[in-house]
Design brief:
The chain is mainly α. Helix content is 83%, strand content 0%. The protein has helices spanning 2-13, 15-36, 45-49, 53-56, 66-105, 108-122, 127-143, 145-178, 180-195, 202-209, 213-237, 241-249, 254-287, 296-305, 309-348. α6 (108-122) runs antiparallel to α7 and α8 (145-178) runs antiparallel to α9 (180-195). The chain is flat, with a radius of gyration of 27 Å. The N and C termini lie far apart (58 Å).
Length: 349
């Protein structure tokens, strides 16, 4: 027991030195391993010291084997668990084709009417926002009839990707707000996810699921879930402590405080997170056209490959219109929730 206490005190006192020593040991290991396994390793140390060429240009024998380790690891992983990813792939493809089939078979006036109805109630019966969204939806097909079905295909991928983001992002944000350790764990992960270039998210999806819409959904999830988690966490933590203390004084349980107080008050922030998630998901769908994902992004890519500037311009405008539709609906609903919250506070006063 005394030894354990001594070790704990020692680690706390010299934690920085232990960390630096550990990182230095990793560096030495990578340096030695890279040198020993390099195909361009010099015949002897004397041949290195006797030449200055390796000082002028970076030597080929001085490189880390991260690429080889990653490729070997992914290869072994796919061989061992590839069948499970096939199940996930088939499930997601079934969802995409099913939703796409429903949207494509529905008459286009009905689809526009449903969008208008959703906007009308989400915006608090705002005629301006409803009219604007209705015109934007109409012009997607009006620009080019081919783009209507392409927009519906993009929408199906978006719906599934956003649903996955909400399924993980909102509970993840709640867990971050309610547990400091969980928050400290997820913050570096979210920082890393928002730092990596968007194209890099396509690589693990391609390696696990091949080309097509499924890797696009995986890329959407990784790319678009961080803002949703952050804003959900922020919205819950911004709830007034006096309100929480009042709930505690009335004997409210943890779940009652969460579902009865924190989530309703944080809902405008959560809707802002869903809005940001939607916009980032749409941008990723466009990027994913390079790996065979069908939709409006595919039309932009074809227009650029064929130097058909008009086609690329029309497809680009259609993407902007689709983004406006999603943005206006989510923003309007968030503003409606905010105004209702303000009205309640005024009535209470």
């Amino acid at each position: 027991m005394v030894l354990i206490k001594f070790m704990v005190k020692f680690i706390k006192k010299y934690s920085n030195y232990i960390l630096y020593t550990f990182l230095f040991a990793i560096f030495i290991f990578l340096l030695v391993n890279g040198y020993q396994n390099s195909r361009y390793k010099p015949d002897s140390l004397m041949s290195v010291l006797g030449s200055t060429d390796w000082l002028l240009n970076w030597p080929k024998w001085l490189d880390v084997r991260l690429m080889h380790w990653t490729n070997d690891g992914f290869g072994s992983f796919i061989k061992a668990y590839g069948k499970y990813f096939d199940v996930v792939n088939d499930f997601l493809l079934g969802l995409i084709y099913g939703l796409k089939g429903i949207l494509v078979l529905a008459p286009w006036p009905m689809v526009i009417g449903i969008v208008i109805a959703i906007t009308f109630f989400a915006s608090g019966r705002s005629l301006y926002t409803t009219t604007f969204v209705g015109i934007a939806t109409f012009f997607i097909g009006f620009l080019n009839p081919v783009f209507w079905d392409k927009a519906l295909e993009t929408t199906s991928i978006l719906f599934i990707g956003i649903f996955l983001c909400m399924s993980a992002g909102i509970p993840g944000g709640i867990a971050m707000a309610r547990n400091k350790r969980v928050r400290n764990f997820f913050l570096p992960v979210l920082d890393l996810a928002q730092t990596i270039p968007a194209f890099c998210y396509l690589i693990p999806g391609i390696m696990l699921f091949g080309l097509g819409a499924v890797p696009a959904i995986i890329a959407i999830f990784i790319y678009a879930v961080p803002p949703l988690m952050r804003l959900t966490d922020l919205g819950i933590r911004l709830v007034d402590e006096e309100v929480i203390e009042a709930a505690d004084s009335f004997g409210a349980s943890s779940s009652q405080k969460l579902f009865g107080i924190q989530l309703p008050l944080a809902l405008p922030n959560i809707m802002q997170g869903i809005n940001q998630c939607t916009m980032m998901a749409l941008s990723m769908v466009v990027i994913a056209s390079m790996i065979g994902t069908r939709g409006l992004g595919d039309e932009v890519l074809l227009g650029l490959q064929q130097l058909n500037i008009g086609r690329a311009l029309e497809a680009g405008i259609s993407i902007v219109l689709l983004a406006i539709v999603f943005d206006r609906i989510t923003q309007a609903y968030g503003a409606t929730l905010q105004s209702r919250r303000g009205d309640r506070e005024i009535n209470k006063k």
